[in-house]
Structures are given as structure tokens and as C-alpha cells.
Amino acid sequence: MRTPSSTYRLQITGEFTLRDATAMIGYLRDLGVGALYLSPVLQSNDGSEHGYDCVDPTTIDAQRGGEEAWAELVEAAHAAGIGIVVDIVPNHLGVAEPDQNPSWWSVLKEGKDSPYACWYDIDWSRYPILLPVLGEDRDEHLTLVVTDGEAQLDYYGHRYPVADGTWEPGDSAAAVHGRQHYRLISWRRGDTEITYRRFFSVTTLAGLRQEDPQVFTATHERIARWIAEGQVDGLRVDHPDGLRDPGGYFVRLRELAPDAWIVGEKILERDEQLPTWPIQGTSGYDAMFDAGAVFLDPQAEKQFSRIYTSITGDKVGIADHVLEGKLTAAYDLLEAERRRIARLAPEIEQEPLESALAEIAARFEVYRSYLPHGDGYLVAAERAAAEARPDLAETIGQISGRLHDRTDEVACRFQQLCGAVMAKGVEDTAYYRYSRFIALNEVGGDPGTFGISTDEFHRRLATRQAHWPDSMTSLSTHDTKRSEDVRARLNVLSEIGDIWGPFAQGVVDRMDIANRSLAYLLAQTFIGAAPIARERMHAYATKAMREASDETSWTDPNVEFEHEVHAAIDRAYDDPDTVELMRTVLGLVARPGWSNSLSQKLVQLTMPGVPDVYQGTELWDESLVDPDNRRPVDFAACAELLRRSDAPPLDASGAAKLWVTSRALRLRRERPDLFTGYTPLYAEGPAAEHLVAFDRGGAITLATRLPYGLTHQGGWRDTVLHLDGTYRGQLQGLEWSGTVALSTILVDYPVGLLVRQ
């Protein structure tokens, strides 16, 4: 198994291409990176910033550098001893511009007779294919264009094919349109009438039928060549929950890549266990929660609940927000998906059946089941739905048997529906509505769990070592709601509730936004992401309030409310009193925020698993949700700081974080023998609770938790750690043995990385 010592995620775009990545190989080698982890690089839609809308899975994206640049990168990386991991997208292809996707173009032109008809998850019982693309003008601007004898339909520059024999000179566009295998309909009908499986509620991404071996082979041809030619060492699989049979998919992928390191973008809830798939683990959201929650003070939960309720008036807990968000997603956003499932059971009255499916899906505690794995979650969801809606109890009983039968089409599609309901209802709705403590409102997070104890932390990491020692670990990704350093700084607030409460009350009152939960979210964002430019804050606020869908939304923007919010943000920047309040709080949390950042970073880099570093997060990074976290990184500045030969001070430059990151990555790459086990370590003394420590089998990690309280209680004082030998520090180069005072180890930095001599 070609398991990398670590990975470094790069977002490859039209502005930062594969050639730009090649130019970074020397820096990544010096940083200590084991493998370069690339965002999707197969041909995507023109202008795509992310690459998840692949239109041709057989070739490298020309706008990202193309085949020649890919070959150069592979050669340079392998020459430097760096592996390559690629993010692949098996669930869907991009269909926003049909003329850019050869397979979709063929399906639209030839219908069921297309050789690609089996590729897409299309409901052929409802014909023609419905494409929700028309604006409010309907088809008034639909025209027929003939070039070199070939006709196409054009709608504001978007081209659609015309089947052979369906047009003659002089035909109107409307007449020709009516003869095609597809119909262009209003974009507003996408949530209710779409006839192909999509990615969540995104109609420009059409689902693939990877359960068909022929489709798998055809769409993985380029990936198979990567593996056969030794170009790629690992694969990160995007959104396996969207597939009909994720387990079967991973079996085929393992057969295609028997020696590759494979992880899946699987979000685990609470103590949910990953199915026994033939992969190394997840893409790290579960580890992100573990590495961050231990640096939050659980004792502050009641106080922060009181602050939140007092300021916002929101007395609804996260569980109720989640249920409301999921019900909204199931009933409104994903109505077409519910209807498709219900039609598979015509023996049951359709309207109550559709409602029953929505109610069960909304009460599903995890993203989906993988029958028979996860059947217990389905039983619990059915019971909860029947109790909440006794009028649907009989219908739930009628459909229950089919939902539990993994060979039944109803069960297969319901599992896919559950994942979409969870993602849209929780991540994209509830997490923007419930703002008690937004550092917890993260992908794979749990806003209802206000931190974890060190004992719980050690239990989780021991379990990880025992069952998934090669799973990826992450702190920031392209999908996180806020970066690791924003969350680390926010965690300090849990130590200063008496100061934070009055400050937040003042900021929210001054903003004077009708939705006070949103105002409270923005108040936390001001502190967590400071200093944040005004335009970035405005952009974030737009996304946050539209995702919440309380007062406004993406589909029906409330211009008046949005103007109110943006005016409030401007007042926060322009009002001297508000600015002074923010400066005061920032002065309190800045240095302990750096401590939390270094602590969780070192923990993530050395804990069981393969650590990933998201681009630029080796320095301080105050990014928010995408596209903010895809801003260009100043790699030249990173390289310049990395050339330092001595430990830098802990200051605003971020050089200390780069120093800690590079020393940890280099050690993992050069001495993997030091990271083969997991033993919790505990300090003794008056500040023992402020230490998180573990021994990986020769490499000891020391990290400070709750640094604000530690400082105000007099520091480490007589707190000691017992070492079972002589150890050398990798950050300062000093040696210690026996019983050592923590005040002598954790001097310049709040963290230590020790190696047994």
C-alpha cells in the first residue's frame, strides 16, 4: 500500500495550473510533504473554479494545464520523492453547457438510442428529459442556429443538440424544440419535476450510474491509466454517498487500484462507524472535530447557551433546527427525488407516501445507511416519524419492508435521498440558523457537543489507531465553513464568557438586524476572522443569510432585508465605538488564539492517520466558507519563511506555525517508525488539565489547552510530565529526561514535539 506520510492539498484552477504546482515541488519537499493532493484535474466546464463539474473524464483539463503539464508535474513530483493523490468525482458529470460534455450531448441528441444513455441516472419512464434552464422569459429567446448544415437550439448562448431528421429550413425554434428527446423548462421546476438524478439540488450536475460495470470502466479509463503507469499513488473519492452502491463502487475501485491509498469523502456523525469498505478511511472531517473540540472548554456550555438565548431570543436547540432544516430540504428542495421513489410503489397512495418518505429521511440520524449496515438508524427514523406523524404511521408501515430490502430500488434510492436531505438541511441550512457557537457549526461537526474532555479525546484517537490508522486527518478543507485558525480563535471565547457576553450584546444591538441569530453569527465572525476586509465580510454575509433561508434565499432574494444586513455591516466598520469594542476583545484572544492554532495543528499532524495540510494553512489563515477559502496563496512568502534556520517567535507573521508544521511533516516522512502506536500521557500538578499529550511510539506530542485560563492562573507552575527516557525536542533542539517541569519545555511555544533518543 502506497500510504503517504502526509498530503498537501492544492486547488488547481485556470489561474493556478498544473505548471504552477510543478514550480512548488521544491517548496513542498522542503516542507516535508509526502504527497501532493490535487483537486479534480479532469476536463471540467469552461471557467470552473473547483473542477467538480467534470465534463469529460477521459482527459486532463486543458484550462488547468492539459496533458503536457500533467506529465511534467508527475515527473517532477516523483523525482523529488513526492507522491500524487488526486480527487476524483464518480457521482456526476457537469451538464451546464451540453456542448462541452460529449456524452451528455449525445444523450440529448439521441435519447435512449445514445451509446451513453446507460451512463446517466435518468428516469426513462418519464419522457422527454426535462432540463430546468429557462428564465422568467420562458422560451422567448430560444433560437434555431444552423452551422454547416447542422442545427442547434440556442438559449442565451447555451447550445442544445437537434436530433437528425427533426428539422427543416423554415421551421421555428419552438417547433423543433418540441420534437427533441428533451424539453427546456423553467429553472424553478427543477426541484419538483427534474427527470435525472442530480448532485443534491444542483441541476447542472447529472448523476452517473457507477453500479453498471460498463459505466464504471468507461468513466474510470483515465484513472486506470494513472494507476497502471504509476503516475498516481492515491485517490480521494468525492461524495460516495450519492452513489447507488458505495460499497460495491469501492470494491471495483480497489480492484482497479489494488495498491493505491484510497479515502472517501464520508461524513461520520457522532459515534457512527465507517462500513468495512476496502479503503483506508475518510477524508478527515471526523478527525477535524476531535482535534478541535478538545481545545474548547466544555464547562462553558451553559453560560454560552444563556448568552445566545439572551441576545437572540432563540430558544430552539440544534436538534430542532436540524429537523426543521431537513424537513424543508425533504419537502421543498428534493420533491422530485421523493416523487421518483414514490412512483416505484404504485400500490401505496402516492401523496401520503411522499410525505412519509420526507418524514423518515428528515429523522435519519446519519447521512445514509448502506444496508444491511446502518439498518438500526432506519428503524429509529421510522419509529420517530410514526410518532411525530401518527396520520402517516400506516403508510410508514406499508413502505417499511421495501426500505429495508437492499435489493429493492425503493431502498437504494431512499438511501441516496437521505444523504441529500442531511447535507442540504443541516450543513447548508441549520448551521447558518443556529449560531450559539459557530466554531462547532462545521462539516462533520456537532454543534450540540460543546467540546470534549481529554479522556474522551484519547478514547477517540485510540479507536482511530486501532481501526483506521491510515485514514486522512484534516483541519481545513475546500468545504469547511471557516478555517482552522478562525475556529481556534473562537475557541478562546469559551474561556472569557463574562467578557464576550456584554461585547456580543453591544455589537448585535448596534447592528440592529431583525434576525438577531444572524447578527450574532456575524459578531462571532468579526472576531474569528479579524482582520477581515469589508468586501469579504459582505460576501460572507450574503452567503450566510441566503443559505439560512430565513429572511432571504438564493432563489428568492429579499432585497430589503439584505440591504439592512449590509448597512449594518458597514455601520460596524464605521462606528468608532464598535471598532474599539472589537479591538479590545481581539487584544484578549489573539495570543491564546495562536496557542490554540499551534496546538490543534500539531495534534492533527501527529495523531493517528495521514495528515493533510490545506493550501496556505501552514501560515495563519483566517478564511471563511468558499469561495473565500480559495483565494490565492502567497507561496513565495511561505518559501522565504521556510528558509529560516532558527525557531521564529510566535507572532502575527505565522512563521511559528510554518516552523511547527514543517518539523512535524519532516519527522513523519523521515521516521514513520515513530508513529505506529498510541498511548495517552498525563501531566501531574496544578495545571495538569491544560495539557494534551500522547506518545505515538517514540514521538511525543505536547499541546496546551485553554491557554487564556492557564495564563491567568499563573502558568504551568509545578506541573510536570514523566518521561520514560531521554527525548530531544524537534522545535527547539533541547533534551529532557525523567520528570520534567512543563514550564521548561513549553517556553517559546505552547507545543512540543519530542523524539526518544
UniProtKB/TrEMBL annotation:
Question: Where on the tree of life does the source sit, at the highest rank?
Answer: Bacteria
List GO BP terms, alphabetically.
alpha-glucan catabolic process; trehalose biosynthetic process
From the UniProt record, which GO molecular function terms apply?
Answer: (1,4)-alpha-D-glucan 1-alpha-D-glucosylmutase activity
Q: Which ranges carry the Glycosyl hydrolase family 13 catalytic domain?
A: 17-676
Q: Where is the signal peptide?
A: none
Q: Matching PANTHER family, A to Z?
A: ALPHA-AMYLASE FAMILY MEMBER (PTHR10357), MALTOOLIGOSYL TREHALOSE SYNTHASE-RELATED (PTHR10357:SF216)
Protein name per its UniProtKB record: Malto-oligosyltrehalose synthase
The organism named in the record is: Raineyella fluvialis
Organism phylogeny: Bacteria, Bacillati, Actinomycetota, Actinomycetes, Propionibacteriales
